[in-house]
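Q: Hi! First time doing this. I have a protein sequence and I read that you can turn it into a structure. Is that right? Here it is:
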Amino acid sequence: MMEPTSPAEELPALYRALLDRVAQIEAEGRRAAAYSLRSEATRIYSRSWDDRARRALQDLLARAADTRDEHHQLAHGTAQRSVTAA
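A: Yes, that's right. Below is the predicted 3D structure, encoded as structure tokens:
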């Protein structure tokens, strides 16, 4: 049976993935969103390297991926629009 990967082994890769996402967001021209994501990732990464930090970086990466999908939909006009009854 394989031993689970320790947070110390996973955190650098998660942080690197977040920085890659920051670069993508900056390339889209969304500097404020990129700054916010980088700040949050750095805050988490610079504290204890434990399971809590691993989960926090994983959650942050998932949210960053969700914003990419939302931004892509908005940019291409494929986002669902809600209709209100008059």
